[in-house]
């Protein structure tokens, strides 16, 4: 796993970026680029990350982020 695109979409709440970034940092995944916007209370973020130093597989990382998103009422999607 090297570069991965992560998108986060859903109702805006406190801590979306913090929780997502905390997971990435814990897994040694570096954020290369990030863009986020809020339109009428809906949050949208796209990140390009480098997962070369992550010890988890792409599928495991993706599943972890999906679970984090569900706990916050968001949809988090990863793609290579």
Describe the secondary-structure layout.
Elements: E1 3-11, H1 16-26, E2 30-39, E3 42-50, H2 58-72, E4 74-79
Antiparallel strand pairs: 1-3, 1-4, 2-3
Short description:
By secondary structure, this protein is an alpha+beta fold. 32% of the residues lie in helices and 42% in strands. The model has no long low-confidence stretch (mean pLDDT 96).
Characterise this structure.
The protein has 80 residues and is an alpha+beta fold. Helix content is 32%, strand content 42%. It has two helices and four strands. Strands 2-3-1-4 form a four-stranded antiparallel β-sheet. A hairpin with a 2-residue loop joins strand 2 and strand 3. The longest helix has 15 residues.
Order of helices and strands: EHEEHE
List unreliable stretches of 5+ residues.
none
Spatial order of the strands in the main sheet? 2-3-1-4
What structural class is derived from the secondary structure elements? alpha+beta
Which range best describes the helical content: under 10%, 10-25%, 25-40%, 40-55%, 55-70% or over 70%? 25-40%
Instruction: Note the beta-strand portion.
Output: 35-45%
Major sheet: 4 strands, antiparallel
Number of strands: 4
Q: How many helical stretches?
A: 2
What is the terminal separation in angstroms?
A: 8 Å
Mean pLDDT: 96
Shape: globular
Taking Cα atoms only, what radius of gyration do you get, to the nearest Å?
12 Å
List the main descriptive attributes of the protein structure presented here.
80 residues, alpha+beta, four-stranded antiparallel beta sheet, 2 helices
